[in-house]
Amino acid sequence: MTRLLRNAALSALSLAIISGCSATASNSDTSTVTNQSASVMVPFAMPPQAEQTLTLNQIMANPDWMGLLAKNAYWSDDSQSVYFSRQEHQSPIADVYHQEINQAQASIIQLNQLHLADQKHGVFNTDKTQKAYLYKGNIFVKQLDSGEVKQFTRQNTSIDEVKFLISGDIAYMQGNSVFKLHLKSGMTEQLADIQMAKAPKGVKDPESYIAKQQHRLIAYVALQHDKSKTRAEYAEELAAKDPTFAAKTWYLGDSEKVNEMSLSADGRYLVVALSDKNYSWRADHDIMPNYLGKDGYVDAVPARARVAEDSYPGERLVLLDLAEHVKKDITIEGLTGFDEDVLASVKAENAKAQGNSYKSKPEPRLLQLMQDWGWNQSAIRWHDTENKLLVMMEAVDNKDRWIASVDLENGKLTTEHRLHDDAWINYTFNQFGWVTGTDKFYYLSEESGFSQLYLKSNGKTTALTNGEYVVDQVTLSPDASHLYYRANKDHPGTYNVYRVDVATGKTEQLTQWTGTLDYELSPDGQSLLLTASTAINPNELYVQAIGGELKQLTQYTSKAFSNYAWQAPQVVKVPSSHGAKDIYARVYLPQGYDASNADKYPAVIFNHGAGYLQNAHNGFSGYFREFMFHNLLTQQGYVVMDMDYRGSKGYGRDWRTAVYRNMGHPEVEDLKDGVNWMAKNTHVDAAKVGTYGGSYGGFLTFMALFNEPELFQAGAALRPVTDWAHYNAPYTSNILNTPDVDPIAYERSSPIEHAQGLEKPLLIMSGVLDDNVFFQDSVRLVQRLIELEKPMFETAIYPVEPHGFRQPSSWLDEYRRIYKLFEQELK
User: Which of 495, 485, 544, 489 is nearest to 516 (CA)?
Assistant: First the structure.
């Protein structure tokens, strides 16, 4: 592997940055090959012929050359225009733009007008005449008919949340306090002052013998006590009867901290989520060193805790009646299975491996509010007009999710829906909420094996969608008649927008897009704002009236990018030889592909990151550099495959949980099927295949090279996980439980435990400032390989880079090394 140390120039690549390219392509020619394992004919479009070869300098340059794309788009309040942001080249600040849907050009909003612009996040009052929003932590209210905006607070202490009450006034949260803003008078009233401290001791009568004797014998002491008691009683009576006084302070003890608060629509009830105040995401004994600190010294950067040491205590809910000043602890006994030993079989297996036995017993489980990683809603959902409350709870052991109603009189939970999974409950697909003006509520659930939409009314549950596809991004229409959603019904890699009639259950497809998209329903419920892409076209904005034609709103992709003859990857189905379903994959063919050539092609398999992520879709990949790199590889004679191995998103529950307690093994089986498929269908030499990937993709590179040494001839692992016990708890404990409970799963799934199997060239590349996958991960594996006397690996470090690289020079250096590795080992 010493060839990796040579400083020879990359013979096949020019180092000049292409400022603009023109190319011609013909996609009309097709080549048909036989998929021997499936006995069907797979048609391939011939790759386009680029007039100018790609270079790594171009690909890894600042992505602005691709175009200053519109991001974070949202509707104006009147549904007649949109807002979005764009970021100029090398600028650390994004500009906000405004564009009418009937105009071709957008205008930048000046800094002194940003507070007046329609805000993405805000709340409407009951009759939709006003909108309240926060701008830079202060409260603004807009009159929707006139457009007049009034600022109600101007302070440096940020306000956290704002909502309209049934009365028409505004409630907001600030720190651990809740306030009510009376819009007519402008008065601010404190509804709740929560102190995480013990209640101060009042004036008490003497209790001990000595104290009683003191009061009996010393008149002065008794007199002072009586005066203090009288003053305290007077102050309490005055506070109760004087309407100008603020509400009494709540003292909730000094052992916990407030995680979240939510106020009922009438302002009477407040739900508070509490947890142990001593818990922290940080590992206080550890740091991440920054060797290039601004003062010339090593900076000690705080580091997160590892799953092996993270012990989250869970949360508990408290209900505060602000009118009666009564506190109720919300008990969990009403949750079905709240005390089940759901890890009994796992604990028994691990105990047996250690020569012990395990006896299961019921015990209350640790719970918390649902922590969905993608939603922007709360797990606490108050009814819009009545004092009715739903909460979504999850078990800290990751095996259960509940939707429960709350008995406000008694502080008890009643299970409305329980979703149990022997593997783990998904950290997406958890949207739920009330259907406005009714007692119905909707929710997403994977109980069928796929995320589907359900409606519950009067104790009866109805499936509004059903099938082997994934539903997400649920939106209730303004008139509460329809639920809008996104789904991949026609193909796992193609997403469109649908709506279902809440009353009849009738479903209607609203868009006809071939690719991927996100959508936002306009405030008037009449149009969709789409952020959509295809395989070779990055996201642009589109507007479509419900039942109308699609209209493109923006065109910000640069001519240099859009005019280039990019090869669109073809999504294929790779049959599994391991009992799984077909594996969806992107395939890129070499320019001038000819299956009759005497020499077979070398190939590369790219492993996407995150594990639970979808990349073999028909839209523009979030891995845009890799997309361009794969085009470059095809110009250099490679076949490239990008697989949605088991564990990937978009294919349902069973595909997601196939890696439970066994990370890196089912996925490598899928990679093996991918190599065999390419050998049979794309004229690939199975003895000339390499692999690479970052983060989870780097982990898979390790697992493939360590456990299947003949599968790949070389591999590059970028920002890779080497030991899951060192990764974070929220992600890892889902899939592997925790190391103290399930050491078998960690030893089975951590590359460092399999490093002795390395036989082929390996390149390890890590950012020193990676606070996601620590640089220490690579350091520990390198030392392990050294001690195993493995000579076939090399390392590259990037001193200023976090998990996602930022500097074009770092990207360029990284991919030069990857390309060089493949050129040396696969050709």
Answer: 495
Mean pLDDT of the chain: 92
In which element (H, E) is residue 413 found? Answer: strand 412-420
Contacts of 738 (CB under 8 A, 6+ apart): 307, 308, 729
CB-based contacts of 693, cutoff 8 Å, min separation 6? 606, 607, 608, 609, 700, 701, 716, 717, 718
Residue 310 · residue 279 · CB < 8 Å: no
CA 716 – CA 761 distance, rounded (Å): 9
Q: Mean per-residue pLDDT for 699-717?
A: 98
3-state secondary structure of 63: helix
Tally the residues of the chain.
827
Tell me the C-alpha to C-alpha distance, in Å, between residue 798 and each of 29, 474, 765, 767. 44, 41, 8, 5
List the structure tokens of 376.
Answer: 């922007």
Q: Is 271 exposed, middle or buried (0-12, 13-18, 19+ CB in 10 A)?
A: buried
Residues 571, 616: Cα–Cα separation, whole Å: 6
Going by pLDDT thresholds of 50, 70 and 90, the confidence category of residue 43 is low
Q: Is the pLDDT of residue 24 over 70?
A: no
Positive/negative CA dihedral, 374, 376, 377, 379: positive
pLDDT at position 284: 78
- pLDDT tens digits, residue range 386-417? 999 999 999 999 999 999 999 999 999 999 99
- Dihedral angle sign, alpha carbons of residues 468, 469, 470, 474: negative
Give residue-wise pLDDT tens across range 409-466. 999 999 999 999 999 999 999 999 999 999 999 999 999 999 999 999 999 999 999 9
pLDDT at 654 over 50: yes
Residues in a beta bridge with 455: 442, 462
Q: Under DSSP, is residue 749 helix (H, G, I), strand (E, B) or coil?
A: helix
* Distance (Å, whole) CA 179 – CA 194: 12
pTM of the model: 0.92
The two tokens of residue 580 are: 């799984």
What whole-number distance in Å separates Cα of residue 606 and Cα of residue 640? 7
| Rounded distance between C-alpha atoms, residue 361 and residue 367, angstroms | 18
Q: Which residues of 803-822 are buried (b: 16+ CB within 10 A; e: fewer)?
A: bebeebebbbbbbbbbbbbb
Q: How far is CA 725 from CA 366, 427, 695, 767, 770, in A?
A: 21, 20, 15, 19, 17
- Report residue 234's pLDDT band, with 50, 70 and 90 as the boundaries: confident
Other C-beta atoms closer than 10 Å to the C-beta of 8 total: 8
